[in-house]
Structure formats: structure tokens, C-alpha cells
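**User:**
My hope is that you can spare some time for a protein that puzzles me. This is the protein in question:
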Amino acid sequence: DAAVTINDRRVHVLFNIMGYTQGERNEIFALRPAPVQVLYKGFVGTLGADYISHMVADTRVSPPEFAAHYTERLLYMPH
């Protein structure tokens, strides 16, 4: 139901703020209801999931030299 609603409302960017923490709803993201799905804040590692295209990161937690180990494209926040 949630994935259908997200898609029907034409959400362009959907943020996952839970990752693999308690209460996560990754099954919604796995259905790909939005064209761009971004991991942000709640989980600092890669999800290793092909349904999350980007991750908001910083260079301390996710150094650029380790970007190849992430399935997501890293979007770095400025300091």
C-alpha cells in the first residue's frame, strides 16, 4: 500500500533514514516506488541493495577511497 501511494503521488526522491535498524521498512524501497532512492543518516554503512541508488555521506564516516566498497553512489556533505 505504501509503495503504491508513493508511486501514485509521483515522489521523485525517496529517503531511507533507517537502513537496517529497528523499524526499517526496506521492503517498500525494494519495490522501487520512486526513481531515486537515497540512504541518509540512520545507517552509516552500505545497504548492499540494488534498490538504493545514492547515499548521503561525509568524508570521515565514508572516506572517498572506500567508495568502491559501496553499492550506492556517495553524495558528500560539505564540512
Summary: Residues 2-8 form the longest helix (7 residues).
